[in-house]
Amino acid sequence: MKTLPTTSYIILGILSFGQPLSGYDIRKTAKELSHFYPAPAHSQIYRELRRLDEMELLTSEYIAQEGKPDKQEFEITPQGTAVLQQWMQQSDIDAPVRKHPLLLRLYFGHVSQPKELISMLERYIAQCNKDLAQLAIVEEYTENDPDHPYAALVVEWNAHYVMAERTIAQKMLDRLQRDQS
Amino acid sequence: MKTLPTTSYIILGILSFGQPLSGYDIRKTAKELSHFYPAPAHSQIYRELRRLDEMELLTSEYIAQEGKPDKQEFEITPQGTAVLQQWMQQSDIDAPVRKHPLLLRLYFGHVSQPKELISMLERYIAQCNKDLAQLAIVEEYTENDPDHPYAALVVEWNAHYVMAERTIAQKMLDRLQRDQS
DNA sequence: ATGGGCATGTAACGAGTTACATGATTTT
DNA sequence: AAAATCATGTAACTCGTTACATGCCCAT
Which residues of chain B have pLDDT under 50? Predict the structure, then answer.
């Protein structure tokens, strides 16, 4: 039995909370996780849903709605839960991967000017601050949410990450500014 | 003029240090950057090199070697440098993206047991410590390297990132252990 | 002598993205 | 009146990975 793509486990994981959800809903939830795992395009979600349906890891129900477009709701099956649990228990979890376009540019800083690099860092710090403000709002919602017991934990982890990024970016910014003058 | 894939800019960036390099060498250097940008497979590197050669963003020279397999060395052209600089100056730099399989599993923690999650975190912390030890070694090499003026900076950034990960992982570990008892 | 590193490349596959497509409702 | 949201799906494309393939040198 070959392993499924991560997108499948994300779908199963999202359905494991018990709520029947449409592909659209799943995509929305996946977007909330994008701070630590990028949300796949909706086309990809629909494709994986079909596959999981064929594998009987989930059930689908067609729902005709008035006033809104029809939708299809998915629920995880016991087999689906088993597959998800197996993935959870996997002993060799892949190391986190980062794609950090700013750091890449910083590494090639010699083809630019310090002034440009400073401006990059400033913009990055501003974005970190925006993200932190947003995370503070989310943090309130996730705390004491009995349906998502580990949500608050990952939100806090994220906030810690973004704060660390801001701190080190500021440090590098200070250094570049010092060197320039 | 449509934008190139990031792999191309990585190649151009690596060649921008001035050393003529083979595809093999480029791949090795790219691996050093994998802490903040995953290194593409060598097959991908060779494919991009062909494209960049056709676009005349680099020159290739065939070198017959004795005692070793023949190789092809690449050098960046002025046009290549121009394209790289344009990419460096791009005002809207994409936000960093993370794929964090551990955090994903933590979020779906309810389908597992606290004991399992604790074990995951312990392994992650151990890996962070290994990475930090490795980074300490690299840090020595990169400091005062006149050929790579910004290398030390990104290594330090990385070390800061891994330390932040270790700290927050430890915090979460403590919390789970407290809740369990 | 066996495994790892050097060096290059092709082939097949899979995952993921963007763009194309439709159409109703709700919000601004 | 226009834009955003709900809702689903296909098609074309690209990037990237893994596996296949070759062959020599060097260290253990």
Answer: none
Whether A80 CB is under 7 Å from strand D: no
Q: For residue range A113-132, what is the model confidence (pLDDT) as tens digits?
A: 999 999 999 999 999 999 99
Query: Residue A100 in contact with residue B154, Cβ under 8 Å?
Result: no
Nearest to A88 among B37, B99, B105 (CB): B105
DSSP letter (8 states) at residue B65: -
B67-106 core/surface letters (b: 16 or more CB in 10 A; e: else) = eeeeebbbebbeebbebbeebbeeeebebbebbbbbbbbb
Residue B116 forms contact with A (CB below 8 Å): yes
Q: What φ, ψ does residue B83 adopt, rounded to 5°? A: -65, -40
* Structure tokens belonging to residue B151: 């290398």
> Predicted confidence band at A157 (pLDDT cuts at 50, 70, 90)?
very high
Q: Cβ-count burial of B148 within 10 angstroms (0-12 exposed, 13-18 middle, 19+ buried)?
A: middle
Which residue carries 């090499």 as its tokens?
A: B141
Interchain CB distance below 8 Å, B101 and A96 = yes
Q: Which nucleotides of C are covered by protein (CB under 7 A)?
A: 6-12, 14-19, 23-26
In this structure, how many other beta carbons lie within 10 angstroms of the beta carbon of residue A117? 21
Spatial neighbors of B130 by CB under 8 A, at least 6 apart, are none
Cα distances from B102 to residues A96, A178, B28, B105, in angstroms, run 8, 38, 27, 5
Q: Which residues in chain B are closer than 8 Å to A154, comparing Cβ atoms?
A: 103, 106-107
Q: Are A23 and A42 in contact (CB under 8 A)?
A: yes
Kindly tell me the number of DSSP H helices and DSSP E strands found in chain A: 7, 3
Could you tell me how far CA B24 lies from the centroid of its own chain?
16
Q: Give, in Å, how far the C1' of C11 lies from the CA of A85.
A: 35
CA dist A128 and B40 (Å) reads 28
- Cα-Cα-Cα-Cα torsion B73, A101, A38, B31, nearest 10 degrees, comes to 40
